[in-house]
C-alpha cells in the first residue's frame, strides 16, 4: 500500500466542499438502514449490509461484482450489479456503483442470490438494489498491497494492514482471556490512579504540572505502591489490573514511554506462590492459543493469526502462506529456574535465549598473557569464550558470516573500551590445520597447533571444521551486575544473524525460564539511565526498594555487605525477552524504612515520599508478593514480532513522539502562565 504522489495532508484538505453541497451530502449519509443479521440471509430475501467497498471487478460494460467488507465479519459480502436497458433503474444504480470510490463506507441493500458458508469460505451474494455512500474515501490516497503508510497516517496503516488488524484483534482476545482466567482464579480487577505523585521508586517519571503553583502530579511508573496498599487494605482475593505505566527512559524497539502491564498482587503469599500462579496463567494461555489459533507466515515473513476453525480474515486473503503452525502446548513440568549469577556466567545475559546453542566459558586460565594483551588493555581481565557452530561446517562461509556480523554490530559492541572481540575459525584445510585468526596477523600460541594452549583449547571446545571461536575480555569484578556482558550481547547478535542468513535453523519454540536470585542492589553507575532512589549509598535497588531479601543469610548480608545480598525477585523470560518480573515485598514498615534509610541512605525527604506506603505496612499489612507481565511484550512475542509497536494501536516513535497526533505538543505562553511555569532562557530544544 502506498500514498499517492501527494502527501496525505493535501489529501485531507482536497475533500473540502462548497457549503451548499456540504450539508446536503451530510444529510445523505446521516440516516442509513440498519444492517441485517447474517443469520437472517435466505435466498430471495432483501437484506442490508454495511462495510467498506472493495475493488470492483467489471465483467463487461453492463455487469460488475464488488465486495463489501465489514471489519468485524469473517467473509466479505459480494454484490452483483447488472443492467440491460439504457436509462433503466438498474443502469442508474450501476452508474452510482461505478462512481463510488473504493474503500468508502457504504450501506448496500440487495436481494440474496446465494448464502455464504463461512467454513467453506464462500461469500454471500446479493443483487444490488441500492447503495448509499456514507463518506467518500479520497481518490488520491492510493492503496496497493504491502506498502507502509507513514507513521503520521496510522489510521490508514491499521485500516489496510491485515497483519496489524489481526495482531490488534489477537491482543484484545488475549486480554479478554486473561481477565477471565484471573477472575476465575479468584483475582479481582482494581483501578489505581494515573495521576500519582513523584516517588523515587527507580525509573524516571513524567510529571504533570497543576494549576496550583509549584505542585505537580507524576504518572505512575507502575501501580506498585497502590497494589501494596491494596494488600494492606485487606481486599478479597488477589488484585490484578491492565495497568498503563509511564517511564521516561531511553527507548528501544521493545520499550515505549507508556506501556501496558498485566499487574498482579497476592496477600498471604510468598514469591513461590506468585510464580506458580503466573506459570499456571502462561500454560493455560498456551493451551487456549493452541486450541484457537494457527500462525502462518506470509511472504514478508510477518506472522498472521488465524482463529481456528474459522479464520479471522477481514480484508482479503493472505497470499503465499507457509503451512500453518499451532501454538504448542507447553510441557507440564515446571519452568526451568536459574539464578542471576548462573545465567550471567553461562549466557552473559539476565534474560537468556535458551534457543541459542552453546554456552560461554571462561578461558582466562587457559589463554596466555601475550594473547590477552593483544585483545585488551585491561590489567587482569576475565576472558569469555563462545564457540559457534553453523550448519554448513565450511570455514570460508564462517569467515564470510563473521565479516557480515562485525560489519553490523551495534556501536557499543563494535567500540568496546574493554577490548575488541577476537575471532578464530577452525579450519582443517590450513597447512597445519587449526585455529585461523580473523583480522589479525597471528595470535601466537593460540593459533599454533603445536602449542599446549592450542591443544587445551581444542580439547575444551571439541572443534569441527568451520567452528567459530569468539573471545572477549571484560573487567574482573567480584560479582556480576547489570543485564549483560559484551560476550552475551555478541552471542545474541551472532545467533540472530545466523538465523536470518539461514546458517542456523529457525527455532520457533517458546523456551520459558525463571531467573531468580538477583542482587538486591546494583552499583549506581551500572544503571546510568535509572535515577534510582536518590540515596547516598552508591547503589540503588536493582528492581525497586520494596523487594524482600531472598534468604535469612541475605538479611545478614544487608547489614554487612549489601551488594552481595540477593533478593526474592523473579523474572519470567522467554526466548531472550523479559516478559515480566515480580518479587516478594517487605511487608513490615520498620524493615522497609531501615532499607531506605540505613542501607540505601535516603534522606528524610526521600523516605517521607513513601510515607503513605509505610503507614499502610504499619497497619498490620499481611505478607504479600506480586508480579507484572509486560502485556505489549507478551503479545509481540506471541505474534512473532520483535517490536512492541506492531501490537500497539497508537505507538510512540523512538523519540517518544506520537506522529499521528503530533504529541508531545509545544507549551503555549498561555499554558506556561496557567501552570506557573517558565522556560529556562538561552536553551534551545
Ligand atoms: N512493579 C514492578 C515493575 O513494574 C513489578 C512488580 O514487582 O510487581 O516492574
TrEMBL record:
Pfam families cross-referenced by the UniProt entry: tRNA-synt_2
GO-annotated molecular function: aspartate-tRNA ligase activity
Enzyme Commission no: 6.1.1.12
Domain Aminoacyl-transfer RNA synthetases class-II family profile residues, every copy: 179-664
Key words, A-Z: Aminoacyl-tRNA synthetase, ATP-binding, Ligase, Nucleotide-binding, Protein biosynthesis
Enzyme class: ligase
InterPro entries: Aa-tRNA-synt_II, aa-tRNA-synth_II, aa-tRNA-synth_II/BPL/LPL, Asp-tRNA-ligase_1, Asp/Asn-tRNA-synth_IIb, GAD-like_sf
NCBIfam families: aspS_bact
Family: Belongs to the class-II aminoacyl-tRNA synthetase family. Type 1 subfamily.
Name used for this protein in its record: Aspartate--tRNA ligase msd1
Organism encoding this protein: Sporothrix epigloea
Lineage summary: Eukaryota, Fungi, Dikarya, Ascomycota, Pezizomycotina
Amino acid at each position: 500500500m502506498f500514498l499517492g504522489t501527494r502527501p496525505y495532508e493535501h489529501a485531507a484538505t482536497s475533500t473540502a466542499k462548497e457549503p451548499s453541497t456540504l450539508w446536503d451530502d451530510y444529510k445523505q449519509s446521516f440516516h442509513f438502514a440498519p444492517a441485517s443479521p447474517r443469520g437472517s440471509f435466505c435466498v430471495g430475501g432483501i437484506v442490508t449490509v454495511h462495510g467498506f467497498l472493495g475493488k470492483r471487478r467489471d465483467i463487461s460494460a453492463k455487469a460488475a461484482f464488488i465486495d463489501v467488507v465489514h471489519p468485524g465479519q469473517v467473509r466479505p459480502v459480494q454484490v452483483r450489479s447488472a443492467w440491460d436497458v439504457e436509462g433503466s433503474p438498474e443502469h442508474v444504480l450501476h452508474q452510482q456503483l461505478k462512481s463510488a470510490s473504493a474503500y468508502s463506507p457504504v450501506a448496500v441493500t440487495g436481494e440474496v442470490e446465494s448464502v455464504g458458508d463461512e467454513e467453506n469460505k464462500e461469500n454471500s451474494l446479493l443483487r444490488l438494489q441500492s447503495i448509499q455512500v456514507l463518506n467518500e474515501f479520497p481518490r488520491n490516497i492510493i492503496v496497493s498491497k504491502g506498502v507502509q503508510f507513514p507513521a503520521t497516517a496510522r489510521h490508514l496503516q491499521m485500516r489496510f494492514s491485515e497483519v496489524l488488524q489481526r495482531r490488534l484483534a489477537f491482543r484484545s482476545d488475549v486480554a479478554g482471556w486473561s481477565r477471565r482466567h484471573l477472575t476465575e482464579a479468584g483475582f479481582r480487577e482494581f483501578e489505581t490512579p494515573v495521576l500519582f505523585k513523584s516517588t523515587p521508586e527507580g525509573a524516571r517519571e513524567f510529571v504533570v504540572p497543576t494549576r496550583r503553583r509549584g505542585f505537580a502530579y507524576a504518572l505512575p511508573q507502575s501501580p506498585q505502591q497502590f497494589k501494596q496498599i491494596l494488600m494492606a487494605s485487606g481486599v478479597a482475593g488477589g488484585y490484578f489490573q491492565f495497568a498503563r505505566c509511564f517511564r521516561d527512559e531511553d527507548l528501544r524497539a521493545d520499550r515505549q514511554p507508556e506501556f501496558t502491564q498485566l499487574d498482579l498482587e497476592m496477600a498471604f503469599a510468598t514469591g513461590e506462590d506468585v510464580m506458580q500462579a503466573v506459570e499456571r496463567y502462561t500454560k493455560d494461555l498456551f493451551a487456549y492459543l493452541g486450541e484457537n489459533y494457527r500462525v502462518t507466515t506470509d511472504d514478508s515473513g510477518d506472522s498472521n493469526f488465524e482463529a481456528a476453525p474459522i479464520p479471522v480474515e477481514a480484508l482479503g486473503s493472505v497470499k503465499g502462506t507457509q503451512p500453518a503452525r499451532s501454538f504448542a502446548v507447553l510441557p507440564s513440568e515446571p519452568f526451568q529456574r536459574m539464578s542471576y549469577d548462573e545465567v550471567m556466567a553461562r549466557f552473559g545475559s539476565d534474560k537468556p535465549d535458551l534457543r541459542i546453542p552453546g554456552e560461554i566459558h571462561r578461558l582466562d586460565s587457559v589463554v596466555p598473557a601475550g594473547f590477552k594483551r593483544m585483545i585488551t588493555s585491561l590489567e587482569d581481565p576475565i576472558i569469555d569464550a563462545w564457540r559457534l557452530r553453523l550448519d554448513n561446517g565450511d570455514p570460508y562461509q564462517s569467515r564470510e558470516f563473521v565479516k557480515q556480523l562485525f560489519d553490523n554490530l551495534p556501536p557499543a559492541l563494535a567500540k568496546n573500551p574493554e577490548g575488541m572481540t577476537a575471532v578464530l575459525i577452525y579450519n582443517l584445510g590450513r597447512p597445519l590445520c587449526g585455529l585461523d585468526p580473523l583480522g589479525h596477523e597471528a595470535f601466537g600460541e593460540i593459533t599454533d597447533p603445536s602449542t599446549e594452549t592450542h591443544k587445551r583449547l581444542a580439547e575444551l571446545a571439541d572443534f569441527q571444521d568451520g567452528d567459530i571461536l569468539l573471545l572477549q575480555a571484560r573487567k574482573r569484578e567480584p560479582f556480576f551486575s547489570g543485564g549483560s556482558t559484551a560476550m552475551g550481547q555478541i552471542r545474541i547478535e551472532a545467533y540472530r544473524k545466523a538465523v536470518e542468513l539461514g546458517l542456523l535453523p529457525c527455532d520457533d519454540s517458546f523456551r520459558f525460564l525463571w531467573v531468580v536470585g538477583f542482587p538486591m542492589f546494583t552499583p549506581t553507575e551500572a544503571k546510568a539511565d535509572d535515577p534510582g532512589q536518590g540515596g547516598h549509598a552508591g547503589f540503588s535497588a536493582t528492581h525497586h526498594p520494596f523487594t524482600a531479601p531472598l534468604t535469612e543469610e541475605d538479611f545478614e548480608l544487608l547489614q554487612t555487605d549489601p551488594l552481595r545480598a540477593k533478593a526474592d525477585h523473579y523474572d519470567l523470560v522467554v526466548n531472550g525477552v523479559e516478559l515480566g518480573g515480580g518479587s516478594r515485598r517487605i511487608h513490615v514498615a520498620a524493615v522497609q524504612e531501615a532499607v531506605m534509610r540505613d542501607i540505601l541512605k535516603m534522606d528524610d525527604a526521600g523516605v517521607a515520599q513513601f510515607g503513605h506506603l509505610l503507614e499502610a505496612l504499619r497497619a498490620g499489612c499481611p505478607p504479600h508478593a506480586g508480579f507484572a507481565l509486560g502485556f505489549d511484550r507478551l503479545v509481540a512475542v506471541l505474534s512473532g514480532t520483535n517490536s512492541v509497536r506492531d501490537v500497539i494501536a497508537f505507538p510512540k516513535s523512538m523519540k517518544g513522539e506520537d506522529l499521528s497526533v503530533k504529541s508531545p505538543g509545544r507549551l503555549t505562553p498561555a499554558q506556561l502562565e496557567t501552570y506557573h511555569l517558565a522556560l529556562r532562557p538561552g536553551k534551545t530544544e
